[in-house]
Amino acid sequence: MPILPATFPTRADLIHRISLAPLTNLTTPTPWAPLTDAEWDHIAPFLAAMNCGLSLSRRPGRPPEDTRARLDAIFRAVTLKHPKGGRGCWSQLPEGHGKPDTVSRTYRRWAHADLWARLLVEVACPTAAPVLRRLTYLVCCAYRRAIRLMGTLRAILLARRAGLHSALPGPSCLLPDPDLSEHLWPLVPAILDRVVAEPGWRPPPGALRGLAALHRFAAGRRRLSRWMEPA
């Protein structure tokens, strides 16, 4: 009896997780540009539904005077790159988009309202309108910057399941993979049960080391440098 069931590689999609997904699930970067009328018409209902700055909002306080301009400013900020590599700083936001601190506060408030998660799910939907799917790169940039605000593991899991690895803060092969962990953990008690049931049985040489390596892979690295973030 092998350590890994014969169906495990296929069920866990190991080859894709380890070698293909970090390359094939990336969204092509697109230059920032203000939202078109058609793009705004498709994305505005989600802001209204999530209580993010539009007139339908029931959140206490005064909404931004121009929510469309605020969203444009956020998309501009999250696509900026630092001169030394990695994501740019809010202070790099060009003039004309508002105060960086104000824009960043709105961004964080909308992250806590789950707007970026909602938009990620929408652009990942196969039946999404083409005009909405054109915003996939911008949404991925906004989403990955909010990973910690949304809860790291939860946010990583959603991006993986949506198949948008550009929404992850680094290469997917270096980040936690909760789904793979769920596939691996049942194997440990199964091995222990067999050792107890068959005292003379021992796992094949190297099998436990391989299983431990898969667990480390599923756990991901604790820290990633910002330059590892997708383009």
List the helices and strands and how they pair.
Elements: H1 8-12, H2 14-24, H3 37-49, H4 67-78, H5 100-112, H6 115-124, H7 130-133, H8 136-145, H9 147-150, H10 152-162, H11 178-184, H12 187-197, H13 207-219
The chain-level structural class is: mainly alpha
Q: Total number of helical segments?
A: 13
The amount of helix comes to: 40-55%
Q: How many structural units, i.e. domains? A: 1
Distance between the termini: 44 Å
Mean pLDDT level: 86
Radius of gyration computed on alpha carbons: 22 Å
Question: Main traits of this protein?
Answer:
Transposase; IS402-like_dom; 54% helix; elongated; mainly alpha; 231 residues
Describe this structure in words.
The chain has 231 residues and is an all-alpha fold. It has one domain (8-228). 54% of the residues lie in helices and 0% in strands.
Question: What is this structure, in a nutshell?
Answer:
With 231 residues, this protein is an all-alpha fold. The protein contains 13 helices and no strands.
